[in-house]
Design goal:
310 residues; Rossmann fold; 13 helices; 45% helix; 16% strand
């Protein structure tokens, strides 16, 4: 089967697709068609092996609440540009900062899942004047994640095998794309709750993700996020990045977490409290790693209340 074209992620629906240039590259963004351009901005950042469609349930709900919600195909994903480099924490935070400025806003609330949540943390620390608040989903503070992996056997067993496996050259790319992206389906089914897997949308979501990971260059870029995160720990740039993250955030933080998440443990999330003393942990019953898909009504209600309060 021929690899899909990047434009195949531009699904029709009650939303508007835009191309926004920021930080030297082009980003594909999506927002609800009824969004008011002057409404408070909420930027939605997806996670590993995903794309903007991750936020299909949030775009309309946040727009109806009077917000301008914009979902982004991150650098290297979907129909955004796929440059050969720039998958380090500083550049990714610069991408989000550039997007906020390019959309004409003084600041925004950032919502991010998994890798996208780590970008939320980095942007909040490195560009605090542009970030009003953050709401990571299943995504601990970077230092808390490192400590959890090093000190908690359960977190190490959950996180490290797939993370380390991605460090090999080219072989992980082939694993992600072979059999029409079957590895992506395995990841989703392993980390999501059983109830969602029985839902009507499960097969459709997985089919879209399997197609998106096969867009030329996407699998490699997806893995470059994790390769930098791992390899930089042994280099000066990684030490500098972690040192820059080691500061207390004064802005509001709401950490959403599926109570059945087998990949990121609640104890790891709590380790981040000393870096975000205003952090509030919201547990989503019955949800796994993809709480915003699995329990969208609960997540939307929590996000709407959080943004309105801050």
């Amino acid at each position: 089967m021929a690899p899909p074209d990047p434009s195949t992620v531009r699904f029709s629906g009650p939303w508007i697709h835009r191309d926004i240039h920021a930080n030297g590259i082009r980003f594909h963004t999506v927002e609800a068609g009824n969004a008011h351009p002057d409404a408070p901005l909420v930027v939605l950042l997806h996670g590993f092996a995903d794309f903007w469609w991750s936020w299909r349930h949030q775009l309309g709900a946040l727009s109806e609440a009077g917000l301008r919600a914009v979902a982004v195909d991150l650098r290297g994903y979907g129909d955004s540009d796929k440059p050969p480099r720039g998958y380090d924490g500083w550049t990714l935070a610069g991408d989000v900062a550039g997007l906020i400025r390019a959309m004409g806003y003084p600041n925004a609330t950032l919502v991010g899942h998994a890798d996208g949540g780590l970008v939320c943390w980095a942007t909040a620390v490195l560009h605090p004047h542009l970030v009003r608040s953050i709401a990571p989903i299943g995504s601990p503070h970077p230092i808390a994640l490192r400590e959890g992996v090093l000190r908690d056997r359960r977190q190490r067993r959950a996180f490290l095998p797939s993370f380390v496996a991605g460090q090999l050259p080219w072989r992980p790319e082939r694993r992600l794309t072979r059999q029409d992206g079957a590895e992506v389906e395995q990841i989703v089914r392993t980390r999501s709750g059983a109830q969602w897997q029985e839902s009507a949308e499960c097969d459709d979501v997985i089919a879209k993700m399997r197609s998106a990971i096969r867009i030329p260059g996407t699998a490699h870029c997806t893995l470059e996020y994790q390769r930098w995160a791992f390899r930089s720990q042994f280099r000066p740039d990684g030490h500098r990045f972690m040192a820059s993250m080691d500061r207390v955030l004064s802005l509001p933080v709401m950490q959403l977490h599926g109570e059945l998440d087998p990949f990121v443990l609640s104890d790891t999330l709590r380790r981040g409290h000393r870096y975000a003393p205003h952090q509030r942990l919201v547990s989503i019953p019955g949800a796994g790693h993809y709480a915003h898909w699995e329990s969208p009504d609960q997540v939307n209600a929590a996000l709407t209340e959080f943004v309105a309060a801050h």
